[in-house]
Design brief:
about 450 residues, alpha/beta, 8-stranded mixed sheet, 13 helices
């Protein structure tokens, strides 16, 4: 009996120690960035490795992370907070930009979190904020998780994506599905700005205009600021191991954005959740939580996409293929030459093609390598979407009354990266151009003429 009593006392002691070690903290902190108060939470062992979770738009705010927090807090000190403008934090007509939110995180790290480096996880708008923070303070972050992040593609491309989904277009902003809460917030904000024909940057800059055009609502202000931001420097600057997570059916932030991030960020890996939309932590909670936990335990990436960083090797066969007046064809593997004439919805995926000729066609090129030597891409009266691909040659791309949308790609031309026989249009999103005429990242709209080489 005495031994049983000793055992019981010991077990109770262990339980008490574990209860003391694993705790939940909820407090309100005063912050100097937005000059208000921020609701702050901590869960898990105080001396464990620290994970900071940054939520997206919506008044659930830090509670978006409830399920993940329950899993992580067994092993990690988990820090969450309601971003100003959301949840229980102060709300007002303030400048809710990624820059200011990154400054808020820095303040919390220095004054309250006091643990560096830490692991950083961001969803949706929170992913954009996490990206900005990791780029600005690289020594502060040991591992980064980015989840379904909107606002990375050039805003005109983003709007066109939504239009193709049947959701309408509200350039210079965005539009969303009528039953999507995020879309309602953003769509109203952007439509108000468009109707008044104001420069959206001016709306963000002046409180009086924010009040008049956006009713001073934090979600609309934050959404507009996110859509206008250029994250090119951030994406190329982050060297931390980065896990990119995406819902396959996300219509808010298209999967193409995840491919862009995985292609451009040097230490990144993309994982796609089948059947999930914009919120995989709800749609596929068990799979999502396990994926995040496994990465945070050992923040390394195993399948880095090296397409943009690896020089082209010669094509090893003489295979030639053609699509003529057909829809929906897919090409993969190695080809000496492909001609696509009068075709729609054609996809080149993980392909290596020496010479690619597109005539009066709609083509998507993903994770592919085109050109080398006298090879390259010729787009003649074609609409081409290029993502995560490398194209090079004496003239890497020749355009003839074409429209190109190039994201997360690298275009290398010995004589020119792009030359036009007839005026063509191209939109770049976080892409790199290397030629005698341009060298560096491009993010924006360009008209290419016979006299205006890239």
């Amino acid at each position: 009996m005495r031994s049983q009593g000793i055992f019981l006392v010991a077990m109770l002691g262990l339980v008490s120690a574990a209860a003391a070690e694993s705790r939940t903290v909820s407090e309100v902190l005063t912050e100097p960035v937005f000059h208000g108060q921020v609701q702050y939470y901590e869960d898990g062992p105080k001396n464990a490795p620290t994970v900071v979770l940054v939520h997206g738009l919506g008044d659930k705010a830090a509670h978006d992370w409830n399920s993940l927090t329950r899993v992580l807090s067994r092993e990690f000190r988990v820090v969450r907070f309601d971003l100003p403008g959301f949840g229980r934090s102060s709300k007002g007509n303030a400048s809710y930009t990624p820059d200011n939110y990154a400054s808020l995180i820095r303040y919390l790290v220095e004054r309250r979190i006091r643990a560096e480096p830490f692991l950083l996880v961001g969803h949706s708008m929170g992913g954009a904020i996490a990206l900005r923070y990791a780029a600005r303070y690289p020594q502060s972050v040991s591992g980064l998780v980015l989840i379904d992040v909107p606002g990375i593609l050039h805003r005109s491309v983003y709007s066109q994506h939504l239009a193709r989904q049947g959701l309408g277009s509200m350039v210079p902003g965005l539009s969303m599905a009528p039953n999507d809460p995020l879309g309602n917030l953003l769509g109203n904000a952007f439509s108000n700005v468009e109707r008044k024909q104001l420069m959206p940057e001016l709306v963000l800059q002046f409180p009086q205009i924010r009040q008049k055009m956006l009713n001073g609502e934090p979600a609309k202000i934050a959404g507009l600021a996110l859509a206008l931001e250029d994250f090119t420097r951030d994406i190329t600057a982050v060297k931390n191991p980065t896990l990119v997570l995406w819902g396959e059916r996300d219509t808010v932030a298209p999967l193409r954005t995840g491919r862009l991030l995985a292609a451009v960020m040097p230490q990144s890996q993309l994982t796609v959740f089948e059947g999930s939309g914009h919120v995989p932590m709800d749609d596929v909670a068990e799979q999502f939580n396990k994926t995040v936990l496994d990465f945070l335990r050992n923040p390394q990436v195993n399948h880095v996409n090296a397409i943009l960083r690896t020089p082209l090797t010669p094509v090893q066969n003489n295979r030639v293929a053609q699509c003529r007046d057909r829809d929906g064809m897919t090409f993969e593997g190695e080809y000496e030459q492909i001609k696509i004439i009068g075709c729609r919805n054609v996809v080149l995926r993980r392909a290596r093609v020496h010479k690619l000729r597109l005539i009066n066609s709609d083509v998507s090129i993903e994770d592919s390598r085109i050109g080398g030597g006298d090879g390259g891409l010729v787009a003649d009266d074609a609409r081409v979407i290029i993502t995560g691909s490398r194209i090079e040659g004496k003239v890497a791309i020749t355009v003839i009354e074409a429209k190109l949308d190039i994201a997360g790609s690298r275009i290398i031309g010995e004589d020119a990266a792009m030359a036009a026989r007839y005026t063509s249009e191209v939109v770049f999103s976080v892409s790199r151009v290397e030629s005698p005429y341009n060298f560096g990242e491009l993010h924006g709209f360009r008209v290419v003429t016979a006299k205006d080489l890239l």
